[in-house]
Amino acid sequence: MRILVTGAAGFIGSHTALALLTAGHEVVSFDNYSNSSQESLARVEKLAGESLERVDGDLRDFSALESLLKSGSFDVVVHFAGLKAVGESVEKPLLYYENNVSGTINLLRAMQLAACRKLVFSSSATVYGEVEMNPILESFPLSAVNPYGATKLMIEDICRDLAKSEAGWNIALLRYFNPVGAHESGEIGEDPIGIPNNLMPFVMQTAVGRHKQVNIYGNDYPTPDGTGVRDYIHVVDLANAHSRAVEKIDSFAGAEAVNLGTGQGSSVFELLAAASKAVGTEIPHSIAARRPGDAAAVWADAELAKKKLGWTAERDLDAMCRDHWRWQSKNPNGFRTESEC
Ligand code: WQD
Q1: DSSP letter assigned to residue 77
Q2: pTM above the 0.85 mark?
Q3: For residue 334, is it left (φ>0), alpha (ψ between -120 and 50) or beta?
Q4: What is the pLDDT of residue 340?
Q5: Bridge partners of 29?
Q6: Low pLDDT (below 70) residues in the chain
């Protein structure tokens, strides 16, 4: 099939583009490289041994999207493009609403005009808001605790309303838990701009010497070892789930949400131990105050993904750390060359 992948140059987008090319699909990338590098697409093509079409564009440019969808004859759209830093969304909410929500409305309108009504959307576990109980089921109440999460929830609601208003839409809302790891080649991986908020990239950047130590945000949570527990999922497992969702998109009647997680929780200490094993040395860390807004524990019920997609995560925390470390040690500055740092 011919697939449009918005945000294909990004962390999950590049791994999914590789999975789709490897599965024999045609891939067209639509990206403004605001938080990614064209280099990742070049490496995806090398790994796949296939080429992909690149369209440099911005979701806020409706006419560009309209002509792309009209002429593109796409079978399915996989939509990753969007801003995703929780902290930045609190400082710049308008930027997030304009880019993520208005941008997605542009995409959906362009799809509607081109009668392309099959969409796989990059949603997030953040739509569950304050987590009271685990494992989390797709039927749990939804709420937003920050503007980034609000954009994901709004986009899900827009997709549900659109699918109710007009027959023929097949929309998979894939709710990721904590994506980490990298392709086993070490050629593509997570390359956050600035100081990463997320644990794994910060741990691995500390391991290559870019930070002095990892600050553990609280060890007094009601969890087995006192540190925060999350459902980390390998980005290659996540990419394979997207490839499955593309294959099975017709089974999504209207807009349906599916959790993408392992169904297992791991603590900060457990991740640090697995990372130290992968790196081969102890990673310097110290206990710091809790981070406002953090939940004690969040992990997925992964049964629906098994039923709907015939997919379960295969890679464990050790594999996630081994693969993430191979990427980080081969690319200490991500996709940027020495001179660009
Ligand atoms: C994980 C654990 C922290 C950093 C975020 C987004 C969410 C989603 C996934 C996109 C927590 C602890 C972290 C550090 C630490 N992204 N931690 N020291 O907060 O679960 O979710 O990423 O959809 O929207 O909110 O991930 O990696 O930031 O934190 O101790 O330097 O690691 O307290 O327990 P989080 P995270």
Answers
A1: E
A2: yes
A3: left
A4: 65
A5: 5, 54
A6: 338-341
**Ligand 1: which of 131, 230, 232 to mutate, judged by most atoms within 8 Å of the beta carbon?**
230
Residue 174: what pLDDT? 98
Q: Which whole-number Å values give the CA distances from 130 to 109, 229, 270, 297, in the listed order?
A: 32, 14, 23, 10
Q: Domain locations in the chain?
A: 2-181+231-263+298-315
Radius of gyration of the CA atoms of the chain, in A: 19
pLDDT (0 to 100) of residue 91: 96
Give CA–CA dist 61/101, Å, rounded. 13
| pLDDT for 339 | 64
Cα–Cα distance measured from residue 42 to residue 35, given in angstroms and rounded to the nearest whole number: 16
Q: What is the pLDDT of residue 336?
A: 86
Residue among 136, 99, 121 at smallest CA distance from 12? 121
Residue 341: its pLDDT value, please? 59
Q: How do strand 170-176 and strand 2-6 relate by DSSP bridges?
A: unpaired
Pocket test for ligand 1, best of 35, 80, 84, 86 (most atoms within 8 A of CB): 86
Indicate the helix (H) or strand (E) that contains 54: strand 53-56
Query: Does domain 2-181+231-263+298-315 sit in CATH 3.30.360.10?
Result: no
- The 10s digit of each residue's pLDDT in 234-243 is 999 999 999 9
